Amino acid sequence: MPEAVIVDAVRSPMGKGKPGGALSGLHAVDLLSQTLAALVQRTGIDPGTVEDFMVGCVTQAGEQSGTPGRQAWLAAGYPVHVPSVTIERKCGSGQQALEFAVQGVVAGTYDIVVAGGIESMSRVRMGVNRLDQDPQGPTVRERFPDLVPQGVSAELVAEKWGLSRQQLDEYAARSHELAAAAADSGGFDDEIVTITTPDGTKVTADESIRRGTTAEKLAGLDAVFGTEENRAKLPHIDWKVTAGNASQITDGAGAVLVMSAERAAALGLRPRARVVASSVVGDDPTLMLTGPIPATAKVLERSGMSIDQIDAVEINEAFAPVPLAWQAEFPVEMARLNPRGGAIALGHPLGASGIRLFTSLLNHLEQTGGRYGLQSMCEAGGMANATIFEVLR
Fold it and tell me: Where does the record place the Thiolase C-terminal domain (predicted)?
């Protein structure tokens, strides 16, 4: 059975996902294409030897509707014989693309494959592909009559784990503080590639980090899901999820080069990491955001490892209650959890977030001497991916 290794991983800067954001003037395909081209240039591989380009993307409409990986590959000027496929597992789409790429190499289907992710949320609005239709349908709603939007699920998670508004705001402020510290110390320099906008502007850094954020400032924000209607339906909830302790809407892309260890050796490429184990689970679709908890338990069991062996963990900060509830079940030291901040500070470009988490975690481990990393993503519908990887030196 071939061994799969990860040779390199890059990501774009994170741009605010609204008109006027740093990357909002760039077509989604070109954002992904430039990120892909940077990966190819850094590794020096012949793009014609790549056998597939697996791309996570959630909102497959408008500029992201035409198999964005295929269009990005062509936009980069690479050989037309290389195909692409779009993968959608909600917020875990990019992570699933990476896991499928690794699995394809282990299965012997590929020798060289690129996994990636894209979401231009300023140009392709979240949910625009639904056209105001019901994605569940009457039978699902009959089985689960208490289904709620994700933001309300975040409130239910906070209530179940007894998380206070102060805890959520303190955690959110920490995210910005850690991300700012990583950026200012050069910690992100090895993972971010420069993106050029149509007017020639070079975007080199994350736009989303809000330096000087404090829990006291965040305390002044309204609970966005505590509408009169929601309060009437759920009178027991002490509404506390705000725009400040939830992930930011952003534009972003990422790309990871995966190949067999044998091919990497033949090409003289030094692998940076390997996947130890992965898992994917379904969980309560009403709570929805709790999937990382059973996904972590499953991947630890599959790997034969304990959480104490993991040097750093990335639990996607879709909402502050998600990593805090996870930590309540896996009580790791706070310093090991999202050590460079997360989506609250860096944003959550849906299809690309799994690649962003992996890239940031890999660089953190390399720079701090860590060996094992674990990442997990909550996903709409009550699903989650979890992956353990090992840094190779």
Answer: 270-390
